[in-house]
Write a structure and sequence with these properties.
The complex is a heterotrimer of chains A (309), B (110) and C (112). Chain A is built from twelve helices and ten strands. Chain A is α+β, with helices and mostly antiparallel strands and 309 residues long. Chain B has 110 residues and is α/β, with parallel strands linked by helices. Chain B has one domain: HprK N-terminal domain-like (Udp-n-acetylmuramoylalanyl-d-glutamate--2,6- Diaminopimelate Ligase, Chain: A, domain 1, 3-Layer(aba) Sandwich). Chain B has a five-stranded mixed sheet. The longest helix of chain B is centred in the C-terminal third of the chain and has 10 residues, at 97-106. With 112 residues, chain C is α/β, with parallel strands linked by helices. Chain C has helices at residues 3-10, 34-38, 54-63, 78-87, 98-107, and strands at 13-16, 27-30, 45-49, 67-70, 90-93. Classes of the chains: A alpha+beta (309), B alpha/beta (110), C alpha/beta (112). Chain C: InterPro entries: DRTGG, Ser_kin/Pase_Hpr-like_N_sf. Chain C: Residues 5-96 form the DRTGG domain. Chain C: It comes from Candidatus Cryosericum terrychapinii.
Chain lengths: 309, 110, 112
């Protein structure tokens, strides 16, 4: 499914009006200088699996871009040892950090390129936007994405709505192992202390702790008390992932609804199971992704932005 | 104080117009149904954020005069229908249970 | 309102944190549902509840609430009191029911 078609199908641009280029772009950018060799660009593209390399001057101002097609041309002409300067495109179509979602889309539709550099007012390169970045931003901007069974592959292919960072390591790890509800909440309490020591502000720490606590309670109430609570906290962003082994959420739409719950009366009498857990998580997180299904594990990922207070 | 007086004084919306001439003799604020069954007095005005259908069953069992659903919450239609059948007045208040209790208490409902 | 005033108005006793009775609260919130409390993200609030589970302490801790007033004269179990002590949360207990405790405090000017 091409980006263009999927976006046309959405036709709800106002849903994404809060997204600008700076919120969509990836900031991990590999760039080269004009005097670098074309061969270096070729190696970079292969190693990083990217289809275009921005070229910047000594002050990191964007001066050009070299794409796969330019590399192929240079290869055919035997010019791999030449400087990037001699083969790069100079009139680069770039985006500004504050460009709106709509501007970005029309750029993709008009120019048919797979990537656009993003620059600040002074022309300095600050990021890149690929079609995958746009898709990620769309998915992250939905409060919840329920992707399970066939729907997942139908809508997303191999694309993951969850942060890849957790595949390597996490800054905070807590194994939830709770019998009854007595020590439920211990993981979130530890997470809170951890976030405070990391220097995050009071308010974002409170939001993250409340949501982690609700998620931890859900694991204790609904998933046999076994699961994990992990977090990555850096660059003004807190990502919290809570996972369990099931029985999963059969209908996420319903579960998100305030007041809806499958909790037993015993749980209700303990002050939980009023059907507000996920609603609270949605209210206090900046991004939320839930992946679950009947008899499936539940993965819940929440992102909290320190700057969004 | 009657249910009618309660409606006037707490500034709530009437969700179910039950028997509004009923006397209200005390207040009870609680979200645990078992506690309400065990402790609330008949004739109470009950402030809660619970909207479960069991609220109506409990209110009928105890003899609650009026249920005040707080914090802008609303009941599903099955709950409303059940309350209408029981002639139980349900009010929706934007205030928290604390504030609703406070307002009624200040008015002299003890 | 100072916690000492809360004690006096509701005839409560201090279970945990007597040395902290000087602390001030600016709002109160009454609920038996912890998710309902968690939905209210306001730090300087007195939590009034009929529950005595460890979850009331955890909830207060997550929200940075300074104190909890337990109503209906319920006994606070030792392990719950211990958790409150380690997390620095004041726990008071009154024989008043939630309605009456709320009413008295509201009448004396503690806002919602």
């Amino acid at each position: 499914m091409s980006l263009e078609r999927s976006v046309e199908a959405l036709r709800y641009l106002e849903l994404f009006s809060n997204l600008d280029a700076s919120g969509i772009m990836s900031t991990t950018v590999h760039a080269l200088h004009p005097e670098d060799r074309v061969a270096a660009a070729r190696i970079l593209m292969r190693e990083k699996s990217i289809s275009g390399v921005p070229i910047v001057d000594a002050d990191f101002r964007l001066v050009g871009l070299i794409s796969v097609s330019k590399i192929i041309e240079a290869l055919a002409d035997g010019r791999l040892a030449d400087s990037v300067d001699s083969v790069m495109v100079r009139d680069v179509i770039s985006l500004h950090a504050h460009d709106t979602f709509e501007t970005i889309l029309s750029c993709f539709q008009r120019f048919k390129f797979g990537r656009f550099p993003v620059v600040e007012e002074d022309g300095k390169l600050v990021g890149m936007i690929t079609d995958t970045d746009v898709l990620s931003a769309i998915i992250r901007s939905f409060y919840s994405v329920y992707v399970h069974d066939q729907r997942r592959t139908m809508t997303l292919g191999s694309f993951s709505a969850l942060s890849k960072e957790f595949e390597n390591s996490a800054d905070f790890v807590y194994d939830i192992s709770c019998i009854g509800l007595e020590n439920a909440g211990e993981g979130s309490a530890r997470l809170k202390v951890f976030l405070q020591t990391k220097g995050f502000g009071e308010s974002v720490v409170r939001r993250a702790s409340v949501c982690a606590y609700e998620a931890e309670m859900n694991v204790c109430i609904h998933a046999g008390g076994q699961g994990s609570l992990r977090a990555i906290a850096r660059n003004g962003e807190i990502i919290v992932r809570v996972e369990d082994e099931g029985p999963g959420i059969e209908n996420i739409d319903l579960a998100m609804k305030e007041g809806w719950s499958t909790a037993t009366d015993a749980i209700r009498e303990m002050g939980f199971g009023a059907g507000m857990g996920l609603a609270n998580i949605r209210r206090f997180s900046d991004h939320l992704v839930i992946i679950s299904g009947k008899d499936k594990p539940t993965k819940l990922e929440m992102i909290f932005l320190a700057g969004k207070e | 104080m009657t249910v009618h007086d309660v409606i006037d004084s707490v500034g709530a919306d009437v969700a179910v117009d039950g028997d509004t001439t009923r006397l209200v003799t005390s207040g009870y604020t609680c979200d645990l149904l078992s506690e309400v069954i065990a402790k609330a007095a008949p004739g109470s005005a009950w402030a809660t954020i619970q909207t479960h259908v069991n609220v109506i069953a409990v209110a009928a069992m105890v003899g609650i005069s009026v249920v005040i659903v707080c914090e802008g919450r609303t009941c599903e239609s099955d709950v409303v229908e059940r309350a209408a059948k029981e002639h139980l007045t349900i009010l929706y208040s934007k205030d928290s249970a604390y504030v609703v209790s406070g307002k009624l208490y200040v008015l002299g409902l003890r | 309102m100072k916690l000492t005033e809360v004690l006096e108005i509701t005839g409560a006793t201090c279970v945990v944190g007597e040395q902290l009775a000087d602390i001030e609260v600016h709002h109160a919130f009454a609920s038996d549902l912890m998710s309902d409390v968690l939905a209210m993200s306001r730090p300087d609030t007195l939590l009034i509840t009929g529950l005595t589970t460890p979850q009331i302490i955890r909830t207060a801790q997550m929200l940075d609430l300074p104190a909890i007033l337990v109503v209906r004269g319920k006994d606070v179990p030792q392990y719950v009191a211990d958790l409150a002590r380690t997390t620095g949360i004041v726990v008071l207990t009154t024989h008043d029911i939630m309605y009456v405790a709320s009413g008295k405090l509201y009448a004396r000017g503690l806002s919602g």
